[in-house]
Model the fold of this input.
Amino acid sequence: MKEPILEMRGITKKFGSVTANKDVDLTLYPGEIHALLGENGAGKSTLMNILNGIYKPNHGKIYYKGKKVSIRSPRHAVDMGIGMVHQHFRLIPTLTAAENVFLYMPDCKLILNKKEMEEQIGKWSSEFHLNVDPSALIWQLSVGEQQRVEIVKLLCRGAEILILDEPSAVLTAQEAKEMFRVLRRMADSGKSVVVISHKMNEVMEFADRITVLKGGEVEDTMPASEATVERLTKAVVGERELKPHKNEGGTCREEVVLKLENLSVKNDRDLMAIKNVSLDIHAGEILGIAGVAGNGQKELAEAVAGLRKVVGGTITIHGEDVTTQGAKARVKKRVGFIPEDRLSMGLVPGMNMEENRILKEFDLPKFSRHHILKKKVIHDTVQEEIKRYDIKTAGDKSPVSLMSGGNQQKLLVAREIGGDPVLLIAVYPSRGLDIGAAEAIHEILLEQCRKGVAVLLISEELDELFQMSDRIGVLCSGEMMAVIDRKEADYDTIGRLMSGEHYEK
Ligand SMILES: Nc1ncnc2c1ncn2[C@@H]1O[C@H](COP(=O)(O)OP(=O)(O)OP(=O)(O)O)[C@@H](O)[C@H]1O
Done:
């Protein structure tokens, strides 16, 4: 057996009354991909942030290449050879990939030597098949490409341990496969890779070993070859039985809530992102939208939510033309919106849970009277939702940026449903959620549907779409290829429509 490159022993980290990690042991070997799994708030990011020098543990020791170390900061970590790709990338959009990489180098003088910069990036890029164009501007790159720039940054800096926080959450299935191939090449070259993930199948396919955290402690650790979905599920959610919630149909009413007619919308680059799309959603119906990310889903959701200008066609809600109305009017019409990017669009990271909860409704009689907030009502509402949705807080008055990603998502869903919507737009609602929480969100959406809410569900997971939708529409290059009754749809047909084939019954 090889010597470990890193050992974490008895790591405990507390934030006030919250114990995020308790007596955790983790060993990493050179040449392995090690997956960290666990429910939302289990302490995965905290443990990796300790390794990355962002947090100092209250107790415990870290041994790196056999020597006891104290990691003082992310800079110190990367100097030692430990680098992390965060969920929210740390790149400057208006600079090129090469400029971003070299701003990260300790000796920024290299930035003056453009040729040398590009050669270095080319070397790493070709060694691991990363395919990064050094002269491309970051804002012009896809999320997958930006992620690869982040990886090149760490490689150029000499990283031997690479930590990736939910790297596949923002990638298409194809991109995720390619990314894991890159990670395998890095492991084969002797580097250690730690991947935080919620996707059990992905982890079993790509990792060498898996560690599951629960309530801040190590619940189980195993070679991937010994992992099964049952064993992992048990370690993640415990003995609690998980019932996949399925849309059994029969809730769809006659009344049309949302109607789009020949809708056209542009993206941020002023290119047509949604082209002549027509659809309707009835009360009590879930219309799923399938498609590879980047085919107009974001623009469609934002136009329906009143956040993006419509350049052609109409949007009607309950028979009223709302095409030119903005987001505020949509809130009054009780349109709920769970956006793709919870931290930049859904929540205000610096505000606490209560403030975020009332953001859209603070001026309604429910939460204020004569401009004075009803603090007790707000407090009680949030406490009730914390219980109902099993939200793990970072302290009631702490900013939501300190909550774990999955718990932020639950808070956002709780707020949008708390607004008693007639139409709910849910974009990748289960992204970043553990398997138990994802099922809870599915049940919440179905409950809304039974109450007569019309749901526009955008997802990349075909399993989720087939489980939840009454009908499935497929977007490809901004065009609605077809809208098919779920009972008549199959994975193969939807897959082919997603790649641009035309629908034939
Ligand atoms: N800076 C902080 N201050 C206060 N509490 C924190 C802080 N960082 C994390 N926590 C709390 O520690 C616990 C563990 O959070 P962590 O982000 O490590 O979980 P996670 O397993 O990564 O979850 P997820 O899968 O949802 O991303 C949570 O209850 C979280 O609210």
Q: What stands out?
A: The chain has a mean pLDDT of 89. The pocket of adenosine-5'-triphosphate is lined by residues 15, 18, 20, 38, 40-46, 392, 394, 398, 402-407 (CB under 6 Å). The two ends are 57 Å apart (CA to CA).
